[in-house]
Recover the amino acids of this structure.
């Protein structure tokens, strides 16, 4: 099963609005979940320039799902959900 792909925007707007709290999220995940996820930092995802999309910081899951106003708790919860949807063996 494919890993859950998580892209954390590290552009200026997102970083200033809280992405700095997301960069070590992988270390907070349990070891079994950590093996099911691929977390990367990205330059500006160009979402901060769009209207009506919500507030930064932004995180993108599996290339198409956007989370606005991302917090470590929200991101970790979504990772656990997506990893569970992929089956217990990832
Ligand atoms: S700085 Fe994050 S989307 Fe632009």
């Amino acid at each position: 099963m494919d890993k859950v792909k998580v892209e954390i925007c590290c552009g200026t707007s997102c970083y200033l609005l809280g992405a700095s709290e997301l960069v070590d999220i992988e270390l907070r995940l349990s070891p079994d979940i950590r093996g099911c996820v691929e977390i990367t930092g990205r330059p500006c995802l160009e979402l901060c320039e769009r209207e009506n999309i919500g507030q930064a910081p932004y995180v993108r899951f599996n290339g198409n799902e956007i989370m606005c106003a991302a917090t470590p708790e929200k991101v970790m919860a979504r990772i656990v959900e997506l990893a569970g949807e992929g089956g217990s063996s990832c």
The chain has one domain: 4-85.
